[in-house]
Structure formats: structure tokens, C-alpha cells
Amino acid sequence: MKKKMQFSFWLLIVLAVLLVVFSVQNAGPIKVTVLLWPFNVSLAVLLIGTFATGLVAGALYAYRKFIPGNEKDEIKSDAAKKDLTKTTKTGGLESDI
């Protein structure tokens, strides 16, 4: 797990550097329309803002999904294990005979 996180970290660093280089080279203003409102904004600001939004969304998802200590998930998994054990002991089929 630690090795996977290290790879993800370095991949994030490489993508961030590429984003900064691309943004600096393409820093001209562009027209962006959000719903009905048009804006003129620098492409660099738009790209970095989009990247930061994705980074925050991914971090929130990872925090919710992968951080241990989420009691709701533990309770659900314990209940699922008990149900699996119960059906295994009865042979998978329960009869009312």
C-alpha cells in the first residue's frame, strides 16, 4: 500500500509540473461561459483551478474511502461476514421443513 501511495505522489508531482509548464506557455486570455455568464480568464488560471478542484475532490474521496476508522463501513462488513458464515454453515440453502 505504501509503495502504491509513493507512486501516486510522484505521478501527482509530475502532472503538476507539466500543468505549470503548459499553463505558463499558454497564459493568454480565453472566453469561458458558465451557464449563461461569459468570462474572460487566463488559461493558466483556468487550468490550475481545474486541477486544484480535481485534487480536492480526489482527496475527499480518498479520505472517505480508504482511511481506516470509518465505523459505518466496519459495521457493514461485519454484518456481511456474519451472513456469509451463516449461509456457509447451513450449506447455502435454508429450508423450512
Q: Could you give the order of the helices and strands?
A: HEEHH
Spatial arrangement of strands, main beta sheet? 1-2
Q: What value does the Rg take, in angstroms?
A: 24 Å
Share of helix, binned: 55-70%
Low-confidence stretches: none
Structural class: alpha+beta
Structural domain tally: 1
What integer is the average pLDDT? 75
Largest sheet: 2 strands, antiparallel
With helices defined by DSSP (H or I, 4 residues minimum), what is the helix count?
3
Net shape: flat
Beta-strand content estimate: 5-15%
The span between the termini is 49 Å
Number of strands: 2
Please outline what is shown here.
With 97 residues, the protein is an alpha+beta fold. The chain has 3 helices and 2 strands; from the N terminus they run H-E-E-H-H. It has one domain (2-89).
What does this structure look like?
The protein has helices at 2-25, 43-66, 71-89; strands at 29-34, 37-42. It has a two-stranded antiparallel ribbon with strand order 1-2. The termini are far apart. The protein has one domain (2-89). With 97 residues, it is α+β, with helices and mostly antiparallel strands. Helix 1 runs antiparallel to helix 2. The protein is 69% helix and 12% strand. A hairpin with a 2-residue loop joins strand 1 (29-34) and strand 2. The protein is flat, with a radius of gyration of 24 Å. It is built from three helices and two strands, in the order H-E-E-H-H.
